[in-house]
TrEMBL record:
InterPro entries: TMEM220 (IPR029377). Keywords: Membrane, Transmembrane, Transmembrane helix. This is Transmembrane protein 220. It comes from Acropora cervicornis. Signal peptide: none annotated. Pfam families: TMEM220 (PF15071). The keyword Transmembrane helix applies. The chain crosses the membrane at residues 23-42, 49-68, 80-101. The keyword DNA-binding does not apply.
Amino acid sequence: MAEKSTSVAIQDINFPLKVCSPWTWRLANGFMAVFFALSAYVQINDPDPILWMLIYGIPCALCCSLVVSSSLQDNIVWKWTAIIHLVACIFGILYSLRALLKGQIDSKNPLNYEEGR
């Protein structure tokens, strides 16, 4: 008795594999846009709201633009905005780690230290 093969032969190699529909990504970007907008809104009572509203507002705008038209991510302005924001956030993380590791935080009691608020 001949053994049946369970492998599937691919007829067309150039056929792209569809992982998700474009509407799934639009829904995910819409959800993240709402999340970033709400995160920017709650920063109003922060001591430095402009900085944090920009940190959350730029990704909100990028996600909103992808909800409207997913082809905008190929635009050079969209790419450079995302890259510059990513680099600025990475520098902010590195600066915070450097400040933490250099011992600039004198108080070890979190109730006495309020820079993180």
